[in-house]
Automatic annotation (TrEMBL):
UniProt KW Protein biosynthesis keyword: no
Official protein name in the record: Cation diffusion facilitator family transporter
UniProt keywords, alphabetically: Ion transport, Membrane, Transmembrane, Transmembrane helix, Transport
Family: Belongs to the cation diffusion facilitator (CDF) transporter (TC 2.A.4) family. SLC30A subfamily.
Subcellular location: Membrane
Ranges that cross the membrane: 21-45, 51-68, 89-108, 120-143, 155-177, 183-203
Domain Cation efflux protein cytoplasmic: 223-291
Pfam family, one: ZT_dimer
Amino acid sequence: MSGHSHTGPAGHAGGAHRWRLQLAFVLVAGFFLVELLTALTSGSLALLSDAGHMAADVVALGAALVATRIATRRDTTGRRTFGSYRAEVFASGLAVLLMLGVSVYIAVEALRRLGDSAEVASTPMLVVGGLGLVVNVIALLLLRGGAGESLNVKGAYLEVVADTVGSVGVIAAGVLVGATGNAWWDTAIALAIAAFVAVRAVLLGREVLAVLGQHAPNGLAPDDVTDALAAVPGVTDVHDLHVWTLTSGMNVATAHLMTGAGADAHTVLDDARSVMRTRFGVEHATLQVEPDTHTGCKEVTW
C-alpha cells in the first residue's frame, strides 16, 4: 500500500516572490547601461568590472524570471511527473557560471594591466559608483525577503550582493585614484571584487549541486527521519528511505515501512504521513506499508 500528500504544496517559493525579481530586473538593467557607458569613457577597470558583473546580474535576474514562469507552467506532455520546478535550480546554476565567468575576466584584465600607466577618470567613478550603490541597495531590499525561501531568488540575491560590494569598491577606487593619482588602486580593487564574486559563486554552486545530486536537504538528517518513522506505532522496520529537494521549499521523500502482525496499514500510513508533514515539513511523502513477512524488497539491487 502506498500513499502521499494529495494536496501538494500550495505554491513554490520562487513563484511567490516573482514580483521582487521583476522590480529588481528593471532597476539593474537600467543602471547597467549607464555604468557600461561611463566605464568605457572613464577608462576605469574597476568600473568596467562592476559593469561586467552588472551584466551578469541582468542575465541572472532574467533567467530567474523565465524559470519561475516555466516552473508554474502546466505539463502537457504527461512525461514531466515532477513538473518543471527544477527550472529554478538550473537558473541558479546559470547565475553561478556567470559569476565565475565575470570573476575570471576581471582577474585576467587586471593582471594584463599590471605595469601599464593607464589613465583613470576618478570623478565619473565616484558618481556612477554612488548611483550603483543606491540601485543595488534597493534591489537587495527587494530580494532579501525571498532569498531565504527560494534558491532561485537566492542566486539573484547573491548576484546583487556581489555587485553591491563592487559598487563600494568602485567608490573606494575613485577616492584612492583621485587622492593619489595612482591607477594601481583601480586594478587592485578590481582583483578584490573578482575574488569576492568567485567565493560567493562557489558557495552557491555547492547548494545547486546538492539539489541536482538529490542530497538530503539541509537540516533534514535521514537518520532522524528513519528513527521518527520507526517510532510510529505498528512499524517494526524502516528501509529504502530517500529524501531530497525538488526545488526550494519542496522536499520529497519515499520509504518502505514494515509492520507487525495486527497493525492497521491505514492507521500506520496516516500516522507516518503526519510525522513527515508536521515534524519534517515534507508534504509529498510516498510511503509503502508492507507486513514484516513480506520479502520482496530483498530482490532490489540498488
